[in-house]
Design brief:
1 helix; 46% strand; mainly beta; 141 residues; nine-stranded antiparallel β-sheet; 3% helix
Length: 141
C-alpha cells in the first residue's frame, strides 16, 4: 500500500523563492498542510523542487496543488540514487487550476533523490505557486 514518503527526515531544496522571502513563501509551506501558505518561486522557466529521502524509495504517485494562473504546464520527474546523477522518470501535465491533482507514476526506479522540474508555467513570467506537494510510494526493500 502506497503511503506518503515525505517525513521529518526528508530534505528539500527549491530553485528560488519570490523576492528571497522565505519567511512568507519558503519551501516548508508545501508540506505544512495549511491551505493559507505556499511556496512561491521567483520568475523564470525551469523552476524545480528536489526531495532527498532518508532511504531509497519507489515512487508511485505525485500529488500537487497549484494556484491557478501559476501552475506548471509541463513537469518532468527525475530521480537518482543518493550520490548519482539525475535521470528522467517521466513527464506529467497539470491542469491550470486550484485543485489537488494526482499523477500516477508507472514503473519508477528505486531512488533516494527526486527532482520535479516545472519546465514552464501558465504565468507569463514563469512563476510557480505550490500550496501542497506530496509523494506517495513505498520504501525500497
Amino acid at each position: 500500500m502506497a503511503s506518503s514518503l515525505i517525513c521529518c527526515e526528508t530534505q528539500s531544496r527549491v530553485s528560488s523563492v519570490l523576492n528571497r522571502d522565505v519567511k512568507q513563501f519558503g519551501k516548508k509551506y508545501m508540506f505544512d498542510c495549511n491551505e493559507e501558505t505556499c511556496w512561491n518561486s521567483d520568475q523564470g522557466d525551469f523552476q524545480w523542487v528536489i526531495l532527498e529521502f532518508p532511504q531509497p524509495v519507489k515512487v508511485s504517485e505525485v500529488k500537487v496543488q497549484f494556484q491557478g494562473g501559476f501552475s506548471g504546464k509541463t513537469c518532468r520527474l527525475e530521480g537518482c540514487p543518493k550520490d548519482g546523477d539525475f535521470t528522467m522518470i517521466g513527464h506529467f501535465y497539470p491542469e491550470d487550476n486550484n485543485s489537488l491533482q494526482i499523477f500516477p507514476i508507472q514503473e519508477a526506479p528505486e531512488v533516494q533523490k527526486l527532482k520535479i522540474v516545472f519546465e514552464n508555467s501558465t504565468d507569463f513570467f514563469g512563476r510557480i505557486i505550490v500550496y501542497s506537494l506530496d509523494v506517495l510510494g513505498e520504501q525500497a526493500s
